[in-house]
User: Which sequence fits this backbone?
């Protein structure tokens, strides 16, 4: 009888051990699968100039600018909002990174990075964009300062740009609904309003700057106007266009720029939009593309080139200046481009490969090759 009892107990013990082993194997497999899925969410930084690749634990990289030594980027690192919650500085040589700014909002959205030789600017916002605080950082001292009063309930500040030792942006007083172009000397902290805008829409809320000049657009008397402000002389050149609704103006250099025409926002009918090139010194307007139904992306670079994707094209069409005209030369045949940056002689491409169940990539290179 004792032998039967002992035999039964031994059988039960064996079954328990087998079940524990099976549970452990299943648990390990689940952990491995979860780890693999988590890894797929991470980004891969690919530096083609230095032939270096590294994985970084960020779910998203939305805004980025760089130079020969470092890449600054807004990243989602365990963000409670699911949007970018900090800014990191990535050292291209060592492949190490450090956090230089953490969002001050509970549900954050850090974005809008711009960089030049001396300064970095960005916007710290909440997830809805209802509150936006712009900041600057001195690249030599790493000192961070707000560009404006933080969390001012009466002022809405849009994304700043950099021009030499100045930051410029559009600010609107929410009480009067009057927008102004603001300019701040980052060395002296002096801020001034340089232009009162008539309109404030998705078409003209962004500024562009190059070669000591700031470009912006506005509308008056049923015509679209472009304005070129010289930071040193403080003079503004007004340029009347042949179109009523214009925007997304971007400088190629101090004398040449592009912009888009738009449809009347109050009408449901969709007419074809146009990509326009203008030469200030020649006072010449050139229609580049005239069959635009929707714009996917529009960028310029440091070589007077334009990258334009529209009407759901997979690739970017590339244009460059030749004999004072903007001409198409070839396509940029890189698939799945989510964001693109071309500043300070460095191209940075955010390639979103999540739909293909591969790690998304941030590609760094000084030259573009199809």
Assistant:
């Amino acid at each position: 009888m004792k032998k039967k009892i002992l035999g039964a107990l031994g059988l039960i013990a064996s079954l328990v051990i087998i079940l524990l082993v099976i549970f452990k194997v299943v648990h390990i497999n689940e952990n491995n699968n979860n780890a693999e899925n988590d890894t797929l969410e991470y980004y891969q930084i690919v530096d083609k100039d230095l032939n270096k690749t590294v994985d970084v634990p960020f779910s998203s990289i939305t805004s980025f600018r760089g130079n020969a030594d470092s890449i600054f980027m807004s990243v989602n690192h365990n963000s409670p909002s699911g949007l970018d919650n900090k800014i990191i500085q990535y050292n291209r040589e060592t492949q190490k990174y450090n956090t230089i700014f953490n969002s001050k909002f509970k549900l954050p959205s850090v974005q809008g990075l711009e960089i030049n030789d001396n300064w970095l600017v960005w916007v710290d916002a909440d997830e809805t964009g209802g509150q936006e605080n712009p900041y600057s950082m001195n690249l030599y001292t790493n000192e961070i300062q707000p560009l404006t009063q933080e969390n001012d309930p009466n002022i809405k500040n849009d994304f700043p740009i950099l021009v030499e030792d100045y930051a410029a942006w559009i600010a609107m007083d929410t009480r009067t609904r009057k927008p102004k172009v603001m300019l701040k000397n980052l060395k002296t902290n002096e801020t001034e309003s340089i232009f009162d805008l008539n309109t404030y829409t998705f078409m003209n809320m962004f500024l562009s700057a190059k070669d000591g000049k700031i470009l912006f657009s506005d509308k008056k008397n049923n015509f679209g106007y472009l304005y070129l402000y010289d930071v040193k002389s403080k003079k503004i050149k007004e340029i009347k266009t042949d179109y009523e609704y214009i925007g997304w103006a971007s400088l190629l250099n101090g004398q040449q720029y592009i912009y888009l025409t738009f449809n009347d926002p109050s009408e449901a009918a969709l007419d074809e939009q146009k990509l326009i090139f203008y030469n200030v010194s020649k006072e010449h307007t050139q229609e580049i593309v005239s069959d635009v139904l929707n714009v996917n992306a529009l960028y310029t670079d440091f070589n007077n080139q334009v990258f334009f994707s529209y009407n759901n094209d997979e690739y970017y069409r590339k244009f460059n200046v030749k004999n004072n005209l903007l001409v198409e030369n070839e396509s940029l045949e890189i698939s799945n481009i989510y964001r693109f940056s071309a500043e300070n002689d460095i191209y940075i491409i955010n390639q979103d490969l999540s739909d293909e169940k591969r790690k998304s990539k941030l590609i760094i290179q000084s030259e573009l090759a199809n």
